[in-house]
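job 3f2a | input accepted
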Amino acid sequence: MVDGVVLANPRRFRRRGRRSPARPAATADNRMHRIECRFRRSRATSPPVPALRGRGGAILAAMPADAQPPAPDGPLIVQSDKSVLLEVARPGADEARRAIAPFAELERAPEHVHTYRITPLALWNARAAGLDAETVVHTLITYSRFPVPHALLTEIAETMGRYGRLQLVTDPAHGLVLHTTDVPVLEEVMRSKRTKGLLGARLGEADVVVHPSERGHLKQVLIKLGWPAEDLAGYVDGEAHPIALHDDPAGAQAHAPGAFALRPYQSEAVESFWAGGSGVVVLPCGAGKTLVGAAAMARSSTTTLILVTNAVSARQWKEELMRFTSLTADEIGEYSGSRKEVRPVTIATYQVLTTRRKGVYPHLDLLESHDWGLIVYDEVHLLPAPVFRMTADLQARRRLGLTATLVREDGREDEVFSLIGPKRYDAPWKDLENQGWIAPAVCTEVRLTLGAGERMAYATADNDERYRLAASAPGKVAVVDRILARHAGESTLVIGSYVDQLEELAEHLGAPVITGTTPVRERQRLYDAFRSGEVMVLVVSKVANFSIDLPGASVAVQVSGAFGSRQEEAQRLGRIVRPKEDGRQAHFYTVVARDTVDQEFAAHRQRFLAEQGYSYQIVDAEDL
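job 3f2a | predicted structure (624 res):
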């Protein structure tokens, strides 16, 4: 520890502040030899594999076409434009989907062939999670029906090799230092206009001083330059505060009332986060992200700031922390529009932190004015831009992001990577479903044909009005009626985005409705009534998309959404996949107007869930 900062790797430094000589990066020839031997062992008749040299020795290997083991029934087709086609009906398609998910992003998911894209950010996330280029290459070759393009394998190895050649470390004599294992890379970034003002004195050919206040800003710039830095500089301890986790594995196994134990994947998530220092844990809705946060807090045992989406979520977090940990009500404060309590554990809403008055954000001082040892970002994919900017100044504090999906519709996933941290743990939805930790779900897209008058009104409307007209089609009311009749007696959520549409539905169904204008106290009362079974049908707007625990809900009917939002679709499905005591399936319906942008947006919304292995059955509204 140096000045209260835990060194990520203290062995890197000699006494008197002198740095040990950096170990030379493995040469392309040596790395090539390792992967060559591996593939020669797997196929004795393979011809010799030539070594490929690249800038900085970053290339691991690239198998020539005639040296790749054949997979004539492979479910993948890997193409030189970095696209990967997955034929879902081929043997091994499910295994291939899980294998490529850590380093490829789903783009399109029609019925038979899904298209993935290998992106630099996906490769860097995979590298930060411990996946190496050899594993990625081996995965693609194993499942590919045709030889994988030689140039693509080379580019994958080069791209993954970029991560970690720049490292942020703590030097006992000079403080925060940017260190490189490849001097030309450091020269390149130092000469970039983007790093001007972020770097200080040069300490040697491989090191340059960085002011601690620029730690986050520098990481943002470096990823934009294509050289993501590995942050090994450690973290301040923060103010100590005892927090114990009240887990009881024996009691949980005996089904004792109130007893719980961390599930294996939750323990793995906490260990992966703690080993990495900061980063993001990705778990399906209903898989217990709050418990992961509580376990991380117990591991830290420091004052903690938790950022959540709304006041209802803040109070739910408080209840869960009091249930799972030794924390009492007096130790947990709420910092929202109605309350401004700062306590050892403070739960603040994004909304109040981003309240702007006369051009300034008066409440953002909460982030840096206290000696927090841990900052938890719930639903980190929703992190607002002002909080991003302030987080850049909080890089010396441990940061845990929790989410069901890292998809951001604004394309700022790279900022989550830079400022919160890489993805440390990711549990596929279908894996947890197969293990019984979340309920199996059946997804159905119900297509409604508009009447002649509605079609003409849609055709003649302005482009910015067409989606509202299609999404709010009056015929959807009758469709909802038929779905509710099919699932009579089951706890059902009717979800939408347009308040007037939801109010009309609520009046027609005789059901209560929750929107953004519903007071917090009334929301909590209605949620409690729904949980207890007093209310069987609840109409909700997007305020119920996130961090609302409704374990009894087993049916959701989506009548409208936020255009083509993939993360919203995942969150809405997440409202109903909490495991059911009787083991029954969950049913998710999305009602769309045929031959309109409503149908087009629905296809885009379903992409993330398709990546997780869910498929939508398409039915006509008249066939319900």
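job 3f2a | The chain has 24 helices and 23 strands.
job 3f2a | closed
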